[in-house]
Structure formats: structure tokens, C-alpha cells
Specification:
By secondary structure, the protein is α/β, with parallel strands linked by helices. It folds into two domains: 174 residues, Rossmann fold, CATH 3.40.50; 94 residues, Pantoate--beta-alanine Ligase, Chain: A,domain 2. A hairpin with a 2-residue loop joins strand 8 and strand 9. Helix 9 packs antiparallel against helix 10. The protein is globular, with a radius of gyration of 19 Å. Bound molecules: pantoate.
Amino acid sequence: MLTTTTIAEVRRLVAAWRARGERVVFVPTMGNLHAGHVSLLGAAKQHGERFVASIFVNPMQFGPNEDFNHYPRTPQRDTDMLAAAGCDLMFMPDVAEIYPHGAELAARIEVPGISAVLCGEFRPGHFQGVATVVAKLFNIVAPDVAIFGLKDFQQLAVIQRMTDDLCLPVRIVGAPTVREADGLAMSSRNQYLSADERQMAPAIYRELKRASERIQAGSRDFGRIEADGAQVLDELGFRVDYFAVRDQLTLYAPGHDTRALAILTAARLSRARLIDNITFEL
Ligand code: PAF
């Protein structure tokens, strides 16, 4: 696996592959890789011949009181994992390479509506930071296909909308959430959990499944289902940001004719803010 910290080198290598007719698949990450990320590389294999992964903890997507400084950084382990997963090129830029004029004053991409709901309400500016860095990475790597985890369902929706609206020539592919044996979605933030909290955390997916089963069994009282899900998690000791039944495409409340549903939740256990979702068709 090749590694580089510079935009110029990424462009040079990708241009050479493209000149040979090879399709380039891109997996953007913030590092601290786990089996979920490795599965994104696995999914990438179905879409091209060359695989690029980025490792960049993007300051623009963290709020002032969030965990940017403490976000786990494990570059050597990440390098080994990407090499073992068959990645061709790892791009690990520093902040100045991505934001040469500083992140504060950098041009930004806003995707209205879909960025403002759910996590957008609780993390103002977060999706602007995500959309901006992903657009920059797309401009740097110029991939044919980019792979994102379905665990971050709203992030995927924002990126899809940005890609459509800006006519970016990249196909966005969502890859299934990878779970621990007890159902907890894999996430770098799981390591913030104490042993007791780790025991509790699978309740998130259990409640999502319970809610989806109620809807699939015929219940349409989404308000009740949302309140029950939030209450169960709250009583277990989570601080629930939201537990919401939404239209998969718009992330707004489902209409009478909505068929594709998503139930999404974000809930905190002390330092860890965990998100998860379940999707299904009626
Ligand atoms: O999901 C992530 O790891 C990040 O939000 C992403 C897409 C790499 C942008 O920084």
C-alpha cells in the first residue's frame, strides 16, 4: 500500500490509474479503524480496481464542546489494517493540507433541510463540516465510486444530496452496518463506554428493532412508538437526543403514502454519543 500526506501525490497516482482505465473507489474515514471500516473496503471491491482510503479527523465537523481533541487517533494500526484489507493508497493529510487558509475561514458547503433535522438539531454545523470535507476529498481523489456506512444514515443522505445538487461525478454507495455479537453498531466512540455502559448499549438496537416490529405489525401511531422508544432508553440511563420514525428519502416525518421508512436514534451514555438506525419498506 502506498501512503501519502499530500494532495499532489494523490492526484498523480489516481491520474495514472485512470489513464490505464482502472476505476477508483474511495473510502473516506476519520481513522481509528474497526471491522466496520474494513467492511467498507470489502464493499469497495465490487465497484472498481483501485482503492483509496483517507484518514482525516476533520475539525470542521466537530462543535466547540465536542471530542475533536480527544478523538482516538491510531495511525499505525490504521495503516496496518488498510494494507491488510487490500487498500492501494492511504491519504493521511494534516489539517493545513486540507484547510490551507484555516478551517474557520474556509469556503463551506451547506445542504439545507436534510442537514437541519435529527443530528443537525443537536450538532449545529456538523453536516456543513461533513459536506465540505467530503466535497474537498472528492475533488482531491476524483473517485468513480465512494463508499459510506449506513450506520451514519443521515450523513449518507446529506452526501447523496450534495453529490446530486453539485453534479459531482461520483456514485455514492451505502454499505451495511457492522454489529457486535450483541447488536451494538460498531463505532470508534464505543470505546468511550465504561464496562457497565457497554452492557447497556445494545438496548439501542433492541429498541429500534422493537419499534420497527410494531410498525411492520400494523401500528401507525408513530408518535407513540417514538415516545416509547425514547422512554425505555431514558429509563435505562441514556440521555436521548431523538428517537424518530422518518421517511427514508427526506428524513422528515412520513406521509400517508411513505413506504420506505427509517427509525433513527441518537442517545448518550456519559461521554459517548451513540447513533443507530433501522430501515425497512412497508
Ligand atoms: O464518517 C466519517 O468518518 C466522517 O464523517 C467522514 C465521512 C470521513 C467525513 O469526515
